[in-house]
# Entry
Amino acid sequence: MPKLSRWFVKSALVCLVLGCFLAALALSGSATPLPPVVTAFRPLAWHLLTVGWATQLIFGVAFWMFPLTARPAGVPPGVPSGRAADRRGNERLGWAAFILLNGGLALRAIGEPAGVLYPSLAAGPLLPLAALTQVAAIIIFVIFTWPRIRPLGK
Amino acid sequence: MPGLVRLYIRTSLVYLAIGGLLGGLLLWNKGPVLSPNMWVLLGAHIALMTWGWLLHLTLGVAYWILPRIAGERPHASLAVVAYGSLNGGLLLAALQPWFAAAWLSVAAGALQFLAAVVFTAHAWPRIRPAGSSTH
# Structure
């Protein structure tokens, strides 16, 4: 399992735990009135579970398990054509996606509740920055992964 | 990776990019307001990220890796029908906020239900020990 995949999967597990904790707090609202700080975390709980957990787990497993990129031109079948690590694509792009996705989630984790609790902060740069970083992570992952969606063994 | 799997997964990546972009706009709009009408995108964002991204990816990978029967993926046409039905339903669901027609939601739900039933009919016999005979 490559290092980048381990980071993606472990980070996904952390998001799963945090997301379930916040979702459990939000669900407790049906039994007892919740302070505003808890309800402010509700959208974050959903996004920790869908983006932080599910999407990030997929990113990590796709980097690990999807077919490797095409064999270099001129290398005949049966002849070793480089290490698997070299045929998973430009790993720096993968790390960029990892950092941007988790950085964006962290910015959201700060900016969204802060904007609800202190509306004067809502117009600040945190949420636009969180949006830009997460969209950038997704676009990078799509571009990075696209060449590996290919028939096996070529 | 068979052609249908590539189609499912590439489609899921396209939906991830579009759904993520819509989500980015919605998140930005929670801070400095870009447009007061931005929330009309919420339904499309949720549909694209759940059915479009997560469901396409899981169905595509399931079609790819579930045990084959006698080396084949039987009734592959069912997975093709599921793909078409799922995308038809998703398109209708994504358009619904702009047309505000109840029948669009009903048709979208029916197509997605059909996709789920048809894909399940395809996958069910393949959920078996790898290397076993027909059952």
